[in-house]
Design brief:
With about 200 residues, the protein is an alpha+beta fold. It has a single domain, classed as Sandwich (Jelly Rolls). The protein contains four helices and ten strands; from the N terminus they run αββαββββαβββαβ.
């Protein structure tokens, strides 16, 4: 009987540990950071452990190989405060040593915010109009009056951003840490967060 109890406790412990790891807890690999952006070096790599692969499956991220695409994520502004729907942010960036890049917004449920704005992502084609090497944009729940790229956070609640670097010049740790990825500065916040849904 004791043998069955011990096996049961071990199984329970392993199950809880696995659940925590998939949620970003235990067994997570070391992250590579560039400013407030971070990436898991094993995403898209053959060396990815079972917990990383389970996380990718859970959030529905169809990861390409590490050499094809590097995924950086963040859910805070430049001051470390959580990105929230009720605030307006200024985005600014520059040319990145990669063939092409895109930035996409994801809600807390890892899905695109539900709204009718049709601007859940921006990319190098829209942001960097030749011969410009820098760009500025807006991250907000309502369309800004100023021109430039806009990411709609309407319906996003507390959300995160993912930047995809396609065919980066280098995937070495030192090169990824040295990247100058977009900054996110809080401009203002409303008293009540904007609500999602159709217009």
């Amino acid at each position: 009987m004791w043998r069955w109890l011990i096996c049961g406790f071990l199984g329970l412990g392993f199950g809880v540990g696995s659940a925590l790891s998939i949620s970003g807890g235990l067994f997570s690999d070391a992250k590579i950071t560039s400013g407030r952006w971070s990436t898991d070096p094993t995403v898209g790599a053959a060396a990815a452990n079972p917990w990383v692969r389970a996380t990718i499956a859970r959030v529905g991220l169809l990861a390409l190989t590490k050499e094809e695409t590097v995924y950086f994520n963040r859910d805070v502004d430049d001051n470390g405060a959580k990105l929230v729907e009720g605030c307006t942010y200024s985005l600014s960036g520059q040319a990145i040593p990669t063939r092409w890049w895109s930035i996409t917004i994801y809600g807390a449920d890892q899905m695109l915010p539900v709204n009718t704005d049709g601007v859940s992502s921006i990319d190098a084609t829209r942001a960097l109009i030749a011969p410009a090497t820098t760009w500025t944009g807006t991250l907000s729940a309502t369309q800004p009056a100023t021109p430039g790229p806009w990411l709609s956070s309407r319906g996003g609640g507390s959300y995160s951003l993912t930047i995809r670097l396609y065919n980066p010049q280098s995937v070495e740790k030192s090169a990824l840490e040295a990247l100058k990825l977009p900054s996110i500065k809080k401009i203002s916040c409303t008293q009540t967060p904007a609500t999602g849904g159709a217009n």
